[in-house]
Design a protein that fits this description.
Distance between the termini: 48 Å
Structural class: mainly alpha
Shape: elongated
Helix content: 55-70%
Largest sheet: 3 strands, antiparallel
Length: 291
């Protein structure tokens, strides 16, 4: 029961959002009609929407988080050691264990990356027309087609977003760190001694790209969206679209729960690879005040 209680708030959030989505789209169904939105999703109308938001996105997040995490984390470590850290000293630090489970913070930047990639493809008219089923009455509203394509393509880009960030979590959880301490002391360099995590270095790099790139893509699509769409469909579509990064973060919660449950196995896996790269020392990085 202790294990389940750790995830209780997150599970309530998933349940509450799922119920809200079902209610919203049940309300919209008479307006939208039983319209097929994509040939790539089983069913029509309401069924397609529910499958996409409540099943396909979470499954994509799980695939990206696990499959790419296990595949790419050794590669990330190898690249870092041979480039940024070619003259650095590496080690393994034991992390403090926390009884709290925080998934929303982790999910924001993978969601932004997924959104950016999805918008890049959805804003291409040729790709959007292939992804979206022939929707007749709104075919003369390009932004609507783009938005539907955007939601569908997220099924793939959420795998990419989670897949690129998951190696960061693998490396951070395993406590793989590096420092320039020996280099500074041996060469008597006039520069500060640093000690940081390998995963943290990648995190800063990808956060910057995800945060900046998505702003431009969002602006272009929302501007087009607000110009073309009016009437009864405007408000509910805005409610769904604008907080998209939070919806994707919530959809990724099952993936984060599974990652948390498998942390011990993942740490052993990464540390085995670290040993192959010559990283075996147990270290502790501290920041202390001196008088």
């Amino acid at each position: 029961m202790m294990g389940i209680s750790k995830y209780k708030k997150s599970l309530y959030l998933i349940g509450g959002l799922s119920a809200l989505i079902i209610i919203i789209f049940l309300f919209l169904e008479p307006i939208r009609g039983d319209q097929d939105i994509s040939q790539f999703i089983p069913g029509k109308g309401f069924t397609e929407t529910i499958l996409l938001l409540l099943f396909i996105w979470p499954i994509g997040a799980i695939i990206g988080g696990f499959l790419f995490g296990y595949i790419l984390s050794p590669l990330f470590l190898f690249i870092h050691k041979k480039t940024i850290g070619f003259s650095m000293d590496y080690g393994i630090q034991e992390n403090l264990k926390s009884q709290k489970f925080k998934s929303m913070n982790k999910g924001i930047f993978p969601a932004l990356l997924a959104i950016n990639f999805s918008l890049m493809f959805a804003l291409n008219s040729d790709i959007a027309e292939v992804v979206v089923y022939n929707i007749g009455d709104i075919s003369n509203m390009p932004s609507t087609v783009n938005i539907i394509a955007f939601l569908i393509i997220l099924s793939i880009t959420i795998i990419i977003g989670m897949g690129l960030f998951s190696p960061v979590w693998f490396l951070n959880d395993a406590g793989i760190v590096y420092s320039n301490q020996e280099k500074v002391r041996k060469k008597q360099l006039e520069q500060p001694i640093i000690g940081r995590s390998v995963g943290g270095w990648y995190m800063n790099l990808m956060k910057g790209y995800a945060g900046i790139a998505v702003i431009f893509s969002y602006y272009k699509l929302i501007s087009q969206f607000l110009t073309e769409m009016t009437g009864v469909m405007l408000i509910p579509n805005l409610i769904l679209f604008l907080p998209m990064m939070f919806l994707i973060s919530i959809a990724a919660i099952p993936a984060f729960i599974l990652l948390d449950l498998t942390k011990e196995h993942r740490n052993k896996y990464i540390r085995k690879w670290a040993e192959k790269f010559g990283i075996t020392k147990k270290v502790a990085i501290s920041f202390q005040e001196i008088s």
